[in-house]
Design goal:
There is one protein chain. By secondary structure, this protein is an alpha+beta fold. The protein folds into 3 domains: 5-143, Immunoglobulin-like, CATH 2.60.40.2580; 145-269, Immunoglobulin-like; 285-570, SGNH hydrolase (Rossmann fold, 3-Layer(aba) Sandwich). The radius of gyration is 27 Å and the shape is globular.
């Protein structure tokens, strides 16, 4: 067996076996940039060959693996023909690799891992696979731990997490139904979170009568407070199972109480993993080219994007950001444009975004009319971003669906660079001040007000965009704005006319785009930057010149923006689904 140590107990008649470690726990989603190194890494794998009577006939130690081995399989030489199945342990402890090894399946299933403090990383995994066709085995490795992700509401900053009532040991191999050894429960304190708005930790599974608790300590309203998250719902405990991803969202905070929601997708089946994608190249060296097909809301979201990308170290000399602008443009309008509607054709404008929020806009410079095809051919675009007009973002009929397919076909047929990534920018709801009273048309659609409109927007994107194969990612700008609005520092003060964003809102939206398109830590953005040094819209703008004063980005403002954006990056829909 090339590169593997083996311990042979009985091997009168031997053959080669190809073992594929193709577990979901090692699937492509785990190898994305959103996974931590601890989640990806495998040191070595201990494999037990078991005969038809449940007796351990052979053992093998496979050295460190990488993604290539996971795809191509491992060749085990000199495997006894007595062996019918394999029991595998990835990242075994030194004690697990010490002889005498377990002699039968019963002893294998009785093996335990110690979790006297936080679980060791890289994570211990285990799995079982049968030999099929005489020479192939597939082993589904499953982590022995669960992943807990705690997201803070924007007005609360996490400082530390203490885990209480968690088993000190767990069974090594998965049991059905779930069971935990008769061991004492333990308490330990986790390290500080990666950001004030997000903490990720890993715990042993637990089906005991005493639910595992997470004591979250942080800052609220200038005071240090602690809240206990207990894994229970409607008075019934929630079992914590291995290889599950438990998403806890702190949705409301007072001095005495925190309110939480808990969702339990599979570790790999999280919306943010599926639709928030890694960058396709290195923007620090190569820059990035971004092309938007949109309207004034696209302008709002991208006004400070060039500046923020530059602050994050993106090569500005090789970066271009263009918006194909139709004032009030809908997906249907762009489809009509593609179909030759002359009135809409004359409304198309080119916006070129530069540093400090400056826009080189042919509407004001007297430049010639651009066609959508010319704009698509202007650069080798890395990202193409679509979005819906604000008034129609909450609903999606067959008309919108047909129009979207027309736009997508046009992009596909006219884009020379077929490596572009297609994204959807989820817009934000109107401010509560815009008029959600009973005399306004908005009330008919959204009696719950601004938040009700936001929920409807989420639903439209979740049902129509997320499942669409053409889209590689979403930009949850609407959720970032909603998160920021829940901060006492910002409140319902991110719009300058109730719909369009003011400079603070523009900055928050641009930070969401920068985070999504690069994956970089936006905590590296600069304080002291003044949003809107360039003043107001010119007099001939289609938008009224409503006061929109400059905003200086203080550390306090940046911290709140980072919280709002990072929380949206992790939970694009506030865990509504």
């Amino acid at each position: 067996m090339a590169g593997c140590d083996q311990h042979i107990i009985d091997t009168d008649d031997e053959r080669e076996i190809i073992v594929f470690f193709t577990a979901r726990s090692l699937s492509a989603s785990l190898l994305k940039s959103t996974a931590s190194e601890a989640e990806k890494y495998i040191e070595d794998i201990l494999v037990f060959g078991v005969d038809g009577n449940g007796i351990v006939a052979q053992t093998f130690i496979i050295p460190q693996l990488d993604e290539q081995y996971l795809s191509n399989g491992i060749v085990l030489e000199s495997v006894s023909r007595l062996v019918k199945s394999f029991y595998a342990i990835a990242n075994p402890s030194a004690e697990m690799k010490t002889e005498p090894y377990p002699s039968n399946v019963s002893e294998l299933l009785s093996m335990t891992c110690a979790f006297s403090s936080s679980p060791k990383t890289p994570f211990v995994m285990s799995g079982v696979g049968n030999i099929v066709s005489g020479y192939v085995a597939q082993i589904d490795l499953v982590r022995t731990v669960a992943k807990i992700e705690i997201t803070a509401s924007p007005n609360f900053e996490i400082e530390k997490i203490t885990v209480a009532n968690t088993p000190g040991e767990g069974y090594l191999f998965k049991r059905d139904p779930l069971s935990v050894p008769d061991v004492s429960m333990t308490t330990y304190q986790e390290i500080e979170p990666l950001t004030p708005s997000l903490a990720t930790l890993y715990v042993a599974e637990n089906n005991k009568d005493t639910p595992t608790q997470f004591i979250v300590t942080g800052q609220f309203d200038g005071q240090t407070v602690s809240y206990t998250v207990e894994f229970s719902k409607n008075g019934a405990k929630i079992d914590i199972e291995r290889n599950k991803h438990y998403m806890v969202e702190i949705i409301a905070i007072t001095h005495s109480k925190g309110q939480f929601t808990i969702t339990v997708p599979d570790w790999e089946d999280v919306v943010s993993d599926a639709k928030i994608m890694p960058r396709p190249k290195n923007p620090l060296e190569d820059g990035i080219n971004i092309f938007s097909i949109g309207n004034s809301y696209s302008e709002d979201a991208m006004r400070y994007l060039f500046e923020l990308l530059t602050q994050l170290g993106v090569n500005s000399s090789k970066t271009k950001i263009i918006n194909a602008y139709i004032d009030g443009g809908t997906v249907v309008d762009f489809a009509k444009y593609i179909d030759g509607d002359q009135d809409i054709y004359n409304r198309l404008r080119r916006q070129h975004f530069l540093a400090d929020g400056i826009i080189d806009w042919d509407f004001f410079t007297g430049g010639g009319v651009y066609s959508l095809q010319e704009l698509i051919e202007e650069a080798e675009w890395d990202f193409i971003i679509l979005q819906q007009q604000s008034y129609f973002s909450h609903e999606w009929t067959d008309i919108e669906s047909e129009a979207l397919e027309t736009v997508l076909e046009f992009i596909q047929n006219n884009m020379e660079n077929k490596k572009y990534r297609l994204g959807w920018n989820m817009t934000w709801s109107f401010s509560q001040s815009l008029a959600f009273d009973e005399d306004d048309w908005l009330y008919l659609y959204f009696p719950e007000g601004s938040y009700g409109m936001y929920l409807a927007m989420c639903n439209a994107v979740y049902e129509k965009i997320i499942p669409h194969d053409a889209f590689d990612f979403i930009i949850p700008t609407g959720t970032a704005i909603q998160n920021a609005r829940s901060s006492a520092l910002f409140g319902d003060n991110l719009n300058h006319d109730g719909g369009h964003l003011n400079n603070l809102g523009n900055y928050t939206a641009a930070a969401m785009l920068a985070k999504t398109l690069t994956g970089y830590d936006i905590m590296d953005l600069q304080t002291g930057y003044i949003a809107n040094k360039g003043g107001q819209h010119p007099p001939d703008s289609p938008h009224p010149n409503i006061p929109n004063p400059p905003v200086t980005i203080t550390q306090e403002i940046l911290d709140k923006v980072v919280q709002a954006v990072n929380a949206a990056h992790v939970s694009p829909f506030l865990n509504l689904y």
